[in-house]
Amino acid sequence: MAKKLTAAIVGPGNIGTDLMFKLMRRAKNVELKYMVGVDPSSDGLARAEKLGFTASAEGVDWLVAQDELPDIVFECTSAKAHLANAPKYEAAGIHAIDLTPAAVGPYMSPAVNLDELCNVMNVNMITCAGQATVPLVAAVSSVVPVEYAEIVASIASKSAGPGTRANVDEFTETTAHALEKLGGAKKGKAIIIINPVEPPMIMRNTVYAMIPAEAAAEGELQDKIRQALMDTVAELQEYVPGYELRVEPQFEEAREDWGGFGRVGIWVQVKGAADYLPEYAGNLDIITAAATRTADALAELMDEKVAQKVGQA
Question: What sequence ranges are listed for the domain Semialdehyde dehydrogenase NAD-binding (predicted)?
Answer without folding.
Answer: 6-120
